[in-house]
Every structure is written in structure tokens, then in C-alpha cells.
Design brief:
Blueprint (H helix, E strand, L loop, with lengths): L17 E13 L2 E7 L10 E2 L2 E3 L8 H13 L3 E15 L9 E13 L15 E8 H4 L9 H11 L1
Parallel strand pairs: 1-6
Antiparallel strand pairs: 1-2, 1-4, 2-3, 2-7, 5-6
Length: 165
């Protein structure tokens, strides 16, 4: 392989740029039910599919990881939670919509956390426009795996339900 001069595009840097982001997902259980949220028809990636509340870390605004998951859950479903321990780590790739050349990707590294609700009256009134949610439901644990989940969440849901017994 030919050598690469400093500052020139080599075999790895010539590839599409990949930006790294961190996300957390909250598995909130109350009375044997798990809170799920449904993506709206306007969601650019998974319209109509279900997932759990959560989102990406705002590096400059979130004080710590507990603050981050609390903020995401509050914004998406209006609940106050007590963050619990992580139980699963995974990743996915998606197009980087901030890359004007349209070649970049975002690698999202995520953790799923068991969370205890402090409040249970879920509402979508606090969501940000880019959350793209149009519904939420407290689903019995034995039915949660039957919902049409976003693909990257399916193995996480299986792990959660296995541990829940």
C-alpha cells in the first residue's frame, strides 16, 4: 500500500465522514406496563413504528447522563423519572442530515436504561418538532414484543423482556 502524506486523504479518510453521537432510551415500567411511543407519519426514518422514549445527548446542555435521560423523557412524554441502570448497549448508522454534501453518516451509540416513573400521566405536549411522535401507550409487558418496533430496537426489546421474565 502506498504511504500517505500528512494532510492528504488516505484510504480511511477518503471514505464518507462519520460523526459519533450518544443516545439513551428509557424503558419505563409501571404496573406491569411499558411505555411505548409511536413515530408520526412525518418521521423521515420510521413512520408509524413504535419505540421507547429517549434521544441523543446534548453535549453542551446536559449536565450528566441522568440529566440527559430525564430531559429526553420529559420532552417526549412529559414524565418525571428516576433513571435506573443501563442493561443494553448497541449502535446504528443513519444519514447525516447536517452534511450538505449528502455523503456523511452518523454512528449512534446507545444505551437502554430501566427507569422508574415518578409521574405516570404521559403527554406529547412537550415534544420538540424533530421528535416526530404522534402517540404513546402503556403496553402490557407480554404484548410489548408484538408491536411494530423500529428495527434497531428489536434486539433491545428482546433483552429487556427476557430479563423482565
Amino acid at each position: 500500500m502506498p504511504s500517505v502524506e500528512a494532510g492528504t486523504a488516505g484510504p480511511l479518510t477518503a471514505l464518507s465522514p462519520i460523526r459519533l453521537e450518544f443516545a439513551q432510551k428509557a424503558f419505563i415500567v409501571s404496573g406491569g406496563r411499558l411505555l411505548l411511543v409511536r413515530k408520526s407519519a412525518s418521521d423521515p426514518f420510521h413512520p408509524g413504528r413504535w419505540e421507547v422514549p429517549g434521544g441523543r445527548l446534548e453535549v453542551e446542555d446536559d449536565l450528566d447522563l441522568d440529566d440527559h435521560i430525564r430531559r429526553e423523557v420529559w420532552e417526549e412524554v412529559g414524565l418525571k423519572i428516576d433513571p435506573g441502570p443501563p442493561f443494553h448497549l448497541w449502535q446504528w448508522f443513519m444519514p447525516d442530515r447536517a452534511d450538505l454534501a449528502g455523503r456523511g453518516q452518523v454512528r449512534v451509540v446507545a444505551t437502554a436504561r430501566r427507569c422508574r416513573p415518578v409521574t405516570v400521566d404521559a403527554t406529547l405536549e412537550n415534544q420538540e418538532s424533530d421528535d416526530h411522535l404522534d402517540g404513546c401507550a402503556w403496553v402490557p409487558l407480554d404484548e410489548a414484543g408484538t408491536y411494530d418496533l423500529i428495527p434497531s430496537l428489536r434486539p433491545v426489546m428482546r433483552a429487556f423482556l427476557l430479563a423482565a421474565g
